[in-house]
């Protein structure tokens, strides 16, 4: 048989351990929420910087594609002109 003092001390120890665990869980939850906020802000900042760069790059890509098409069209016209001129035989 255990004494009344031992029983009370053991009961209080369990209670203290439960309170300590509750406190630690609360602190960890708070810390997790802080880290979530930091991650959110870091990702948001990166995206805010990325999006204008992406849009600018897309615009430049479209300009290059347009220029490339114009160059190809001009090249084809030059080839047709050269081919047309070479089929005409010089007069003797």
TrEMBL record:
Q: Which Pfam families does the UniProt entry name for this protein?
A: Zw10_N
Q: Which top-level group of life is the source organism from?
A: Eukaryota
Q: What GO cellular-component annotations does this UniProt entry give?
A: chromosome, centromeric region; nucleus
User: One GO BP annotation here?
Assistant: mitotic cell cycle
Q: Which residues form a coiled coil?
A: none
Q: Which part of the chain is the Centromere/kinetochore protein zw10 N-terminal domain?
A: 28-81
UniProt cross-references to InterPro entries, sorted A to Z: Zw10_N
Q: Which residue ranges traverse the bilayer?
A: none
Q: What is this protein called?
A: Centromere/kinetochore protein zw10 N-terminal domain-containing protein
